[in-house]
Amino acid sequence: MKFSVGDHIVYPLQGVGIIKCIEERNFQGEPQPYYVIHIAISDMIVKIPIAKAAEMGIRAIVPPSEAQEAIDSISSKYDPLPVDWKTRYQMNVDLLQQGSIASIAQVVQALYHRSKVKELPVQERKLYDGALRLLIDEVSFSLKRPEDEIEKLIFSRLEKK
């Protein structure tokens, strides 16, 4: 998928960004076009070769219906996670690397419920916080609603039995 200047995109594990410009850069003596993307949540600029954008998981923001499905999915029944935290951690990292909003919602749901049973180890807590931030960021943008409102909505769905 090709993007244009001004398009909002999702960069997996980073969040929603906007394409500020497209610039030529030399790589191994060959000029190549790069997206210059500003990730607002971390105030970071990243430069991604256009030819590698899809491979790196750069994608369009999900439509509102898909964002709503992700929110709804976190109140559904979930499969318990393995007891071993290293196994759990790797499973969740793998899910996040998929980059889909559904997989991000799945990580948020699983780690939230796990944290209600037992305090999460530091690395898992960081993973949960990062996944929650990514979910809030994209859903807020997709549904055109404030982040604090989306955060409350997510927690109300997580608390549903």
From TrEMBL:
It comes from the Bacteria. Residues 2-112 form the CarD-like/TRCF RNAP-interacting domain. InterPro entries: CarD-like/TRCF_RID, CarD-like/TRCF_RID_sf, CarD-like_C, CarD-like_regulator, CarD_C. GO terms for biological process: rRNA transcription. Gene3D superfamilies: 2.40.10.170, CarD-like, C-terminal domain (1.20.58.1290). This is Transcriptional regulator, CarD family.
